[in-house]
Amino acid sequence: MRLKGKTAIVTGGGSGFGEGIAKTFAREGANVVINDVSSAAAERVASEIALSGARAIAVAGDVTRENDWHTLRETALEDFGSVQIVVNNAGTTHRNKPVLEITEDEFDRVYAVNVKGIFWSVQAFVPYFREQGGGVFVNIASTAGVRPRPGLVWYNGSKGAVIVASKSLAVELGPERIRVNCVNPVIGETALLSAFMGVDDTPENRQRFLAGIPLGRFSTPQDVANATLFLASDEAEFVTGVCLEVDGGRCV
After folding, report:
1. Which residues are within 8 A (CB) of 100 and not within 5 positions of it... i.e. 6 or more apart?
2. 2 domain-assigned
3. What's the confidence (pLDDT) of residue 20?
4. What is the 3-state secondary structure (H, E, C) of the chain?
5. Radius of gyration for the alpha carbons in the chain, expressed in angstroms and rounded
6. Cβ partners under 8 Å of residue 197, min gap 6
7. Does residue 225 contact residue 24 with C-beta atoms inside 8 Å?
8. Using CA atoms, how far apart are residues 249 and 252, in angstroms rounded to an integer?
9. What pLDDT is recorded for position 205?
10. What is the model's pLDDT at position 195?
């Protein structure tokens, strides 16, 4: 088991990529703390993990709020005694549409969840990781931050910010044995699929997007979980500042 004896926090763990990451980490021996803005979603995933014989708890909370991060950290430490891994997976998007149609509220929400959420994770866990002599962040960014699509300007920008911030954090925190890496998924089969496409989820509309992915399919939660597992594990102990595309060749 590649994460035996470790505790991992997974934000946005109640569905999609986060659910895949949480369940994969649990299968690999980790204690998993599932954070989601939906308490029902977090509880469902935690219960399913517990039924499999692994250990998981649900902690509802909004990643854009400082106090929710403090609650998340303290609950994790109370239940499991320590934390070694934080996966910043929670994310959102505005609907794919022309840039001048994006509202200020849509802009603010995208940057609050995708970027400010990571800011608060750093504020909450870097002091703790320093005390423990190290730790791991894995931030789920996107190929949108590397090879942007039209219609998603401010989402693309938010994921570009995640990528640059992750590299900057890796350089600054490396001497303290705190590793920071990214996973960049291509568009995936999640609840946000229609928003990313900007059109109804039909076979014809899917094909338009699949045409730009050489391996010919969308990413799956398991694809993203596999990459995240490697970066979170001791197998990647000399890997930091990396952004790993999980994209079927989209960014080539």
Report:
1. none
2. no
3. 98
4. CCCCCCEEEEECCCCHHHHHHHHHHHHCCCEEEEEECCHHHHHHHHHHHHHCCCCEEEEECCCCCHHHHHHHHHHHHHHHCCCCEEEECCCCCCCCCCHHHCCHHHHHHHHHHHHHHHHHHHHHHHHHHHHHCCEEEEEECCHHHCCCCCCCHHHHHHHHHHHHHHHHHHHHHHHHCEEEEEEEECCECCCCHHHHHCCCCCHHHHHHHHCCCCCCCCECHHHHHHHHHHHHCHHHCCCCCCEEEECCCCCC
5. 17
6. 96, 187, 205, 206, 208, 209
7. yes
8. 5
9. 73
10. 66
Q: Which residues in the chain show pLDDT less than 70?
A: 191-198
pTM of the model: 0.96
> What is the structure's pLDDT at 201?
72
Furthest-apart CA atoms within the chain: distance in Å:
53
Domain span including residue 229: 7-246
**pLDDT value, residue 194:** 67
On whether residue 251 sits in a domain, the answer given is no
Distance of CA 130 to the CA centre of its chain: 22
User: Which candidate, 122, 160, 118, 123, places its Cα nearest to that of 141?
Assistant: 160
Total count of domains within the chain: 1
The pair of three-digit structure tokens given for residue 128, joined into one six-digit string: 């703790």
**In a domain? residue 150:** yes
Q: Catalytic residue numbers?
A: 155
